[in-house]
Task: structure prediction
Amino acid sequence: MNNDSLWTIFLNASLVNNFVLAYFLGICPFLGVSGKLATATRMGGAVCFVMLVSSVCAYGIHRLLVAIDAPYLQLISYIVVIASTVQLVEMFIKKMSPALFRALGIFLPLITTNCAILGLALFQTNKGYDLLQSIVYALGAGGGFTLALVLMAGIREKLELATVPDMVQGTALTLMIAGILSLAFMGFAGVGA
Amino acid sequence: MAGADRNAAGAMSTDDFIKGLWRENPVFVQVLGMCPVLAVSNSAVNALAMGLATTFVLVLSNTLVSALRQFIPRQVRIATFILIIATFVTVVDYLIQAISLELHRALGAFISLIVVNCLILGRAEAFASKNTVARSVLDGLGMGAGFTLGLLCLGGAREILGNGSLFGLALFPAAYQPWIVMILPSGGFFTLALWLLLFNHLKLRRQMRESPGNSPVQEATP
Result:
């Protein structure tokens, strides 16, 4: 069991140990969907939702696996839960907002292979969080992911207007900005400790 | 390229292996599976272990996917691939735990996270589900070797600059002031960015040489 207060868990997951900038989880969508601010915000929302649902499910599965003494099934059952949740979100978004569905494109089904979500489920199990702590942890992680994505999208929209040398264009430039953002987030170290 | 022509015949070729090393290098050209690349490349030993573990999973999952490719219905293929991959990752997880507990601790959750490495799913979908077992194994070996190479380039550079050592052996005299930032998360982003810059530079220079009249078009990766 873990006795961290809920506020500490939230701050820790969203700022101090930001999933994208400190743990390097979810880099693919971070590089891929951060071109436009509006898309980035909604992608963040979708990831938050999947995180929340899979976090609750992962908690339940963990209790079940402990009860039947089969820890080796952990990874397999987590990934199945995440894949089904993503499928659900995909159908929901397709029905509610076809425009958003097209904007997110291939990155929507790829939430399944977003390591941030599986990472969240594994970390909360390792840390021994109870149900409420898990939910707060998922909210913090989702919020942190969205924050990083939105910051990056904002910077990249401004960069569209700047002249950049040919050699630096594309992924290299995005990675450099990510490095600087990561440096900036290191300033949060110690907050909420 | 030659590989495409031979697809129909199903013939094996060394090209299946070589392409993963250089032309389609997963790290520097395809920019796939970046999360483990950035996260565990803070020392050369970690990078090598991660590369080998990924290669192991890649080869075995390619083999099984390719062997079962006639039996997997198209609609549920992605879910099946992920289950196959997750099985092998569980195996590798316990294997590393048995070999070296210290290494297992250093790599942490990132061994389990091999499941969601887009590279492995990508090869299963793009190559193994369409080709013979032998070619898929070669492809897995090549891609795995290329991935390990990329990880080593990153891990080596970060360890040399950030710690003044390589594989734990000190390279510089004691007066060397290590660049701590290279071991920190931001160093991972910077190092990868610099490697990509180098590759972009080489690509642009080759284009310039092939067509001296034209200025280099904006061909950098999107």
In short: Chain B touches chain A at residues 31, 34-36, 38-39, 78-79, 82-83, 86-87, 89-90, 93-94, 109, 112-113, 115-118, 121, 181, 184-190, 192-194, 196-197, 200-201, 204, 216, 218, 220-222 (CB under 8 Å). Confidence is low (pLDDT under 50) at residues 1-9, 215-222 of chain B. The CA atoms of residues 146 and 218 of chain B lie 26 Å apart.
